[in-house]
Structure formats: C-alpha cells, structure tokens
Amino acid sequence: MKFATWKYDGKEEAGILSAGMQSVHSFVGLGMHFLSLLDFIQRHSDADLAALRSVAEKPGIPLSGVQLLAPIPKPHHDVICLGLNYMDHVQESMRFDISVDSDKRDDAVYFSKRVVRALGPDGIIENHFGINERLDYEAELGIIIGKDARNVGKEDAWKYVFGLCCFNDLSARDLQTKHKQWYFGKSLDTFTAYGPYIATIDEFATPLRLRVTSRINGETRQDSTTANLIFTPEHIIAELSAGLTLDAGTIIATGTPAGVGAGFTPHRCMKSGDVCEIEVEGCGVLRNTVG
C-alpha cells in the first residue's frame, strides 16, 4: 500500500492512495482513530492494515482534488542521514568538499538533518541565496522505521521497516564549505523534501535493487541503483540500533550517488525556476521547484 498526507477542504488528512493511484482514503473517513500518518505508524495493528487493504481498490476522494504534502510533515526527530554512501559520490565530493580527504570507507558517515516542517511534492524550495549561492540536490532512498528497533541483527532489519520513499537531501554547498560540517548547510528551511508517498516494504524484494535518479528541468543528472550503496539498509539499521533506539516513524536518508550539481566543473547547482525531480523505483516521483 501507499500511505500519504494531504490537504483537503482546508484540513490536513492522512491515509492511503487507492490501488489505481487516482484517489485517496483518509483514516478519519474510514472511521479509524489515527490523528496523522506518524500516529498510524506508531500505533497501528495488523487488523488496521487488513481493513485498509479491504478498501484500497475502492474509489475515494479524487487525487486531483487534494494537495499532497510530505508524508510526515513534522517528523518527531531530525532525519538520520548517510553521507558519502556511494563510492562515485565520494570521489566527486573530494573536488568540492574540503572535509572529504580520502575515498577510503571503512565506517559509515552519519549526520542529522534538522527539519521543522518537511517539503512535500510540488512544494517550493526556498533558495536562501542571501547566505548561499550553490543550492544543490541529492536523490536518495528514504526509509521509514515501522516499529521500535534496538539491537536488531542484519537478518531481521527489514522486519522493522514500514516503507520506502523518495528523498531529496537539499544542500547549501557554500555553507558546508564555510563551516566545515554539514548540519547547517543541510538544515535550512525547506531543505528536507520527501514523498510523494510512502510505499510499504511488502511491495519490494530485498536485498533492494532500486533505480535512483534525479532530473533538473528534465535533464538526468544522477542515475544509479541502491545495489551500489556502500553501507546497505540492513547494515545501517543493525549498526545504529546496537547503540540507540530507532523508534517508529524515524526517517533515514541512505545517501546519494554521483551527479550532484557541485560535482560538475563548473558547478551546475540549481537556480530560481529550476524544476527538480527525484525518482526512486517503486516510490513515485518527487517534484519541486526552486523559488
């Protein structure tokens, strides 16, 4: 199933997309007492999932009549991100990020991305050109944890995943360089964009082999596959949960392949009016425009 959040008749609702992707069914409209998608992820039962599957084929509110938002517009934690998790991106990053001084990768690089409110499909990316000139895109696979995970082995990691989505780790490259770290440059308002929905993990075969692409004004910039991840989702979940609890609703962005704007010479970062599309196989297309 595909879960989403949207605005309809001035109100924010959450629920599922119909199987034909032409309509939506809200939790409230189905008489289910969940306040949001995050609330559903944290409290749902197998019976709730079965009830949703029973109506997934039926028409609901036309999708054309709602405004899709980020699936969890206000995450309850900062997003956990993987840096330098595709070798070709490691190598291109050495050309523009002074903190990357080696292509040796023995351990995963983790950082967090602050998000007050996430940007959803068709939302406008604030350019922040007053403090940064190199506005960059990063196409990534996003993972949403489905139940509290602590001390999880790699072989069991997928049992703790609710679903997958497209994720754009928008980045201010000038701030990254100036401050010699990533937190500020990746946490500006609207710099966490994901969606258009979360596809449940039962729609995918594991290990994952999903195509990950980005397009700027229709031109393909990144084109890779999650088979090229240095540290796999199984590794990430097992390693992190060995020392901290990944609770239900946690969002993990797994890293980006080569082809980011700053990796070109001269750089090809985004400008006002550019349309950025992020596509992950099985997860739809996340489209945003730079303001």
Plain-language structure description:
- It is a single chain.
- Helix content is 14%, strand content 32%.
- The protein is globular and about 55 Å long.
- The two termini are 32 Å apart.
- The protein is built from five helices and 18 strands.
- The protein has two domains: 2-69, no CATH class; 79-290, Fumarylacetoacetate hydrolase, domain 2.
Q: What fraction of the residues are assigned to beta strands by DSSP? A: 25-35%
Main sheet, how many strands, which sense, barrel? 11 strands, mixed
| β-strand number | 18
Rg on CA atoms, Å: 18 Å
**Helix-strand topology string:** EEEHHEEEHEEEEEEHEEEHEEE
Mean pLDDT, to the nearest integer, reads 96
Give the end-to-end Cα distance, rounded to a whole number of Å.
32 Å
Number of domains: 2
Please report the first level of CATH classification, the CATH class of the largest domain.
Alpha Beta
Give the low-confidence spans: none
Shape type: globular
